[in-house]
Amino acid sequence: MTHNLAITIGVLATGLSCYAIKFIGLALPKQVLEHPYAIRLGALLPVSLLAALVAVQTFADGESLTLDARAAGVSVAAVALILRAPFLLVVVLATATAALIRAVS
Amino acid sequence: MSSAPSSAWAQQRSIVLRDGVGVGIAVGSFGLSFGALSVTSGLSLLQTCALSVLAFTGGSQFAFIGVIGAGGTPLTGLATAALLGSRNALYGLRLAPMLQLRGARRLLGAHLVIDESAAMALANEDPATDHHVQRGARFAFWVTGLAVFVCWNLATLVGGLLGNALSDPRVFGLDAAVPAAFLALVWPRLRTRGMWGLAALSAVVALMFVPLLPAGIPVLCAGLVAVIAALIPRKADTDPTMNAAAP
Fold it and tell me: B67 Cβ partners below 8 Å, 6+ apart?
């Protein structure tokens, strides 16, 4: 199987899974997902996964950890978020910072 | 049914319409960056657009392209995306009694269950009419869901076209845009010290596993932190629909 075909199958399977998850919530009897553990996990899981994604996408380079222009970009993004900048501005500032550092180094 | 006079209902409807379209346009800017980052992560324009149409839940889509871009397998991308999308099931649970969708409408409506439509429906819930069809909530759900769907997919296409025009994403610092986008997504949820602690611990666990496991798997390992943390009963942070703010 080619890498491109694998990605296509991954895209279709992800679409199907995400739809199934949404449909289950609407269709299942209330008590199944209303268990306190399920509700707590629903609140905590996104935080855990997103924080891990931030860390990995900032510091991982293949299977090693590095400190490069991405870290500076993400730091600027954090400052922008503290200053309540809108989403697109946060992303643009992070991108510009990383590009600037690469340009001068 | 709501007992509000028709003029009040007309007013509520125009406010909901304005807000829903506003949310859609705001989310569109986010779709723009998704489209651009997706094609620079190795997905084709068609795969990128298909993901936005079919998955239609921002966090999961970013997770999928993040894993692929880091060299992970599509299966790992799928697992991360599905876990991140699990909160939508909890939204559906909250929305079901308000919307009372059946048949084809439920099949269609299910696709529109996302952070924004859930938040807007809940904001228009009338506490006085318990367990009946809530027309305000229902209207807010459909308007917001459809507005976001249209804007999100158009923006994905435009972003993808822009992304394809760039040759090397690293030169433009686009590899820093992905973690920045994730940070902006998690930011509104970091309202308590407990959430900050969970985020920090998850980040450390993921980084610890980076040298040991293939790309994408360390993030799933960090998910175990939430699985364990959720075992601790806690009064705060229990309602996921209340911290809905990320697109």
Answer: B73, B76, B77, B80, B215, B216, B219
Interface probe, candidates A9, A12, A24, A26, chain B, greatest B C-beta count within 10 A:
A26
Q: Which residues contact B136 (CB under 8 A, 6 or more apart)?
A: B2, B9, B12, B16, B124, B125, B126
- pLDDT tens figures, B189-216: 898 999 999 999 999 999 999 999 888 8
Helices (H) and strands (E) in chain A, counts: 5, 2
Non-local (6+) Cβ contacts of A76 within 8 A are A93, A94, A97
A79 shares contact with chain B (CB less than 8 Å): no
Model confidence pLDDT, tens digit, residues B210-241: 999 888 889 889 999 999 999 987 655 444 44
B245 touches chain A (CB under 8 A): no
| CA atoms of B5 and B83, how far apart (whole Å) | 43
Nearest to A43 by CA among B3, B115, B101: B115
Element spanning B108, H or E: helix B103-111
- B185 to chain A, minimum CA–CA distance in Å? 7
Domain spans of chain B, in order of start: 6-174
A89 touches chain B (CB under 8 A): no
User: What ranges make up the beta strands (E) of A5-97?
Assistant: 60-61, 64-65
> Is the pLDDT assigned to residue B87 strictly greater than 70?
yes
ipTM over 0.90: no
List chain A domain ranges.
67-105
* Interface with B, mutate which of A17, A35, A50 (most B CBs under 10 A): A50
